[in-house]
Amino acid sequence: MKWDFKIKEVSKNDAGLLIQEFHYSPVMPRLTKHFLGCFLEDRMVGVITLGWGTQPLQTIRKLFPELVTKDYFEIGKMCMHPDMPRNSESQMLSKTFQWIRENRPSVQFLYTWADGIVGKAGYVYQSANFLYGGFIWTDVYISNKGEKIHPRSTKELCRENAALLGKEKVFWLTKDFLKIKNISRVRGKQFRYIYPLTKNAKKHLLKRSTVMWNQPYPKDKDLEWKIQTDNGFVQTPKPEFNMSVVEHNKKNVSQIKKNNINEFFEY
């Protein structure tokens, strides 16, 4: 079924309410330029945030050496109300392409990652005709309570680890320290996707990319995980994350009050 979605800019607070209620991870991106609400009549049923990762210029230059930050957006968060049918997210993405073309016509690409560590191969991006550009291995930490801890969220832990070692700094938590804290270090795949928003991007820029796009889409069979042991990283089943646990990620989670969440989603 095709929905008559409307994409409108909304406040960070309104976007955060939906994201914290329905997205698998409550950690909000810091470099967000636009909070876009997806509306069905007067009801906001989805959210997409547009901005950049922690290294905006370096990210695009690695893919397209001639481009700069203003030439692309990266999807930070995307989620849909669970009452909506399965194909709704791809329709929301299609409307987002249209919104960017109308409101930010100089933007060449929409870029994103599918989080293979939590079991996502990127099917919604595949349905929306994004191009696939391969994967990278990336590391996260998992607490004994199931909290997914990004390395960027370990500043205080790194300080504590360094103090125990008598060092000024550490950049990765050591094996012994992880054992003390009951934290595991897990490695998984991140799948790279891009959507060209202009004719120039599709005809010319893609050909000059450092990445080979339009590769065969990954599937569930391509998901892999490795866990750090005393003998290095070894294959492991999918980790069990508990996204409701927020202890180490407190500073990176938007402080949105949920006390009126039911009122927020009423028609």
What would you note in describing this structure?
- This protein has 267 residues and is of the alpha+beta class.
- It has a single domain, classed as Gcn5-related N-acetyltransferase (GNAT) (Aminopeptidase, 3-Layer(aba) Sandwich).
- It has eight helices and ten strands.
- Strands 1, 2, 3, 4, 5, 6, 7, 8, 9 and 10 form a ten-stranded mixed β-sheet that branches.
- The longest helix is centred in the middle third of the chain and has 16 residues.
- The C terminus is likely disordered.
Characterize this entry briefly.
Helix content is 26%, strand content 29%.
Q: Topology, pairings included?
A:
Elements: E1 5-9, H1 12-22, E2 32-40, E3 43-51, H2 56-63, E4 72-80, H3 88-103, E5 109-115, H4 123-127, E6 131-143, E7 148-149, H5 155-165, H6 175-181, E8 183-196, H7 199-205, E9 225-229, E10 232-235, H8 261-264
Parallel strand pairs: 4-5
Antiparallel strand pairs: 1-2, 2-3, 3-4, 5-8, 6-7, 6-8, 8-9, 9-10
Radius of gyration: 20 Å
Mean pLDDT across every amino acid position: 89
- Tell me how many strands there are: 10
Q: Judging by the overall fold, what is the CATH architecture?
A: 3-Layer(aba) Sandwich
Low-confidence stretches: 256-267
The computed structural class is alpha+beta
Count the domains.
1
As a percent range, the share of helical residues equals 25-40%
CATH class: Alpha Beta
Following the backbone from N to C, one meets helices and strands in this order, namely EHEEHEHEHEEHHEHEEH
